[in-house]
Amino acid sequence: MKFTAEQIAGILEGSVDGDPNAEVSKLSKIEEGTEGSLTFLANLKYTPYIYKTKATIAIVDHDFQPEHDISITLIRVENAYKAFSKLLEYYNQVKLNKSGIENPVYISESAKYGDNIYLGAFSHIGDNVRIGDNVKIYPNVYIGDNCVIGDNCVLFSGVKIYSDCILGDTVYAHSGVVIGADGFGFSPDESGVFSRVPQIGNVIIEDHVDIGAGTSIDRATLGSTIIRKGVKLDNQIQIAHNVEIGEHTAIAAQTGIAGSTKIGKFCRIGGQVGIVGHLTIGDRVKIQAQSGIGRNLKDDETVQGSPALAYSDYNKSYVHFKNLPSLVQQINNLEKQKSNDK
Q1: pLDDT at 320
Q2: pTM for the model
């Protein structure tokens, strides 16, 4: 599909500087631009590339002033990075714009679904499921009994949603996501043999949540595991039973959150973080990558390390950590000198 500079400027509410009829059919990085591609300039260190890129159109800020002759058509916008992100979303919607029901699929007679749905082959829709409008369900997706899927959701191939779970509007779940598997609930007897504790709760995911590939969100033992609106989850994250994650919190890959921990709003959690169970993490908390959290954290704390320390304390301590070998050597030398003095 081809778009002209004039059409793209209309989408982005920008203005064309150059040929309004210049056409593009693909996107590219500015340093790798080829004829017929659209690129953007947001970081000033990439400015030299705009004079030699082979891309046909570039999105730039309104105040960009070329220092040399330039042949590429420019689309001037308020913020080039945000405009290009908007264009990526538009491109993605066009690319993923599938509709209809493929065969074979299984849809329970008691299930109901809205308008403009796409249901890929080999998918399973259980009893009493409710699916909203404009939902895209890719092949090999399983939706268990009594689930609710809101409007404009996208479930990529291989997503599994166990029974009784609820997804709000505009939830994106990438391949391999598992929602509603049993929480890790086992009770040992006097001899140490474990018995399974039934997990009879569910998972509630609110609006505008993105869930990366391979992430697991366990159902509650009782009640609900809750992911609040606007949460962004990276790939391969484990969220245990009865966890609650506050609005607009973002969590990077390979993080594990143990049962019944409550995380506040607007938190930022780095990759490979481990958080033990039954904690309360405040709002706007920042946890650096590979930290181990074993205590409650107050609003606006920034921590690092395992066990995690205040970020500034960790950096001060690290100076001493790396000097430990030389400090030990100095102590040994002093002890030898003391022995010789005797």
Answers
A1: 78
A2: 0.82
